[in-house]
Amino acid sequence: MKFCMHLSTRIQDKGKELSLLNCLTDLALDADASGFGAISLTEHHLHENQGYQNSLLFACALAPRLKNATLILSTVNPALHHPVRLVESCNLIDQLNGGRFVVVFGSGFKDTDLIAFGRDLEQRNRLFEEGLQAALDIWAYDGKGGPLEYVAGADRGTLATAVNPSSFRKPRPIMGRGTMNQAAIADCAARGWPLFTAIKDAATARDVLAKYYALLDASGHDAETVATAKEWSGLGKALHVAETDAQARSEAEAFFIKNPTGAIARNPDDMICGSPETVTRKMREFAAAGVSVMTSAFLIDIDNLPQLHRSVRLFKEQVMPAMAS
Asked: Which fold has domain 2-21+31-237?
């Protein structure tokens, strides 16, 4: 099982924004050097002062500094992006990180994103599908056989040449879908894409992933496509490690009092929380359930960096080696 550090946080004090960005950058670079297989960025515009808002730009800043880790954008809602700009940006990230890049599409869970960009909430599904299809068409276009016309919501245009830069990985970056919807999971398997989801317990994860893997195996895709989809499929959990279970739970409860509407978890019962031994046991349960990538969202509090750094250190020094043995 690969571990992915998910960088998602909130900030209330505008005077600490640069400190938070520096903290997130340091976490990413340390994760890259410490054996994390991936670093995940999210996209929440105007939602509780998400630290960096624009995951595409932040990924471009991080990519040239990473040596080993794959960058994952989880998730990108194509309804919020001009399709040409989206393809250009993703290709640039893919080039800068040497093909170690996964873009995960999702329709989002907050109306504030769509409202901020003037999107009709009643048309959110149509806008998602149109934006996704336009981006895929642009990725596939090689400039031959006549111009490409695209329509995605209010955005429309014509291409006579292929977008550049092209992606490092051909013909396009690894793509996935973030969803808990059964129809979308089936669509993900039919496309041969990795599945990214959020599931509370290992037993449910086993059931969902077994069904997805069965659909993927029956999809008719070539062996490399299926293997890549399985390699990068997984789920996200908030994570906190302390010396004891009681200490970890108490600290997590204090964090959620301060940050009550977290995207991945809103209480300790929704997360993986405990001593290194407890966290290792829970991680092993998810690995046995078929989780290939565990996207781990540490409790990032810019006002309590020693607690954050201790949690990350315990995970790196005790949990990760135990999982590798």
From this structure: TIM Barrel (3.20.20)
CA 179 to chain centre: 11
Distances (CA, A) of 109 to 6, 47, 77, 100, 181: 17, 11, 10, 27, 13
Q: Where are the alpha helices (DSSP H) in 145-201?
A: 182-191
Phi, psi dihedrals of residue 72, rounded to the nearest 5°: -120, 125
Q: What is the pTM of this model?
A: 0.96
Helices (H), ranges, 266-319: 276-288, 305-314
Would you call 105 helix, strand, or coil by DSSP?
strand
Tokens 């092209």 locate to 166
pLDDT one digit per residue (tens) for the chain, 325 residues: 999 999 988 777 888 899 999 999 999 999 999 999 999 999 887 766 568 889 999 999 999 999 999 999 999 999 999 999 999 999 999 999 999 999 999 987 778 888 888 999 999 999 999 999 999 999 999 999 999 999 999 999 999 999 999 999 999 999 999 999 999 999 999 999 999 999 999 999 999 999 999 999 999 999 999 999 999 999 999 999 999 999 999 999 999 888 876 657 889 999 999 999 999 999 999 999 999 999 999 999 999 999 999 999 999 999 999 999 8
Contact in structure between 162 and 141 (CB atoms under 8 Å): yes
DSSP 308: H
DSSP string covering 223-248, please? HHHHHHHHHT-EEEEEEEE-SSHHHH
Q: Which structure tokens are listed for 191?
A: 């496309």
User: Whose CA is closest to 79, among 124, 45, 46, 138?
Assistant: 124
Q: Quick one: tokens of 97?
A: 């990180």
- Report whether 235 contacts 185 (CB < 8 A): no
* Cα–Cα distance, 104 to 120 (Å, whole number): 22
Q: Are 10 and 45 in contact (CB under 8 A)?
A: no
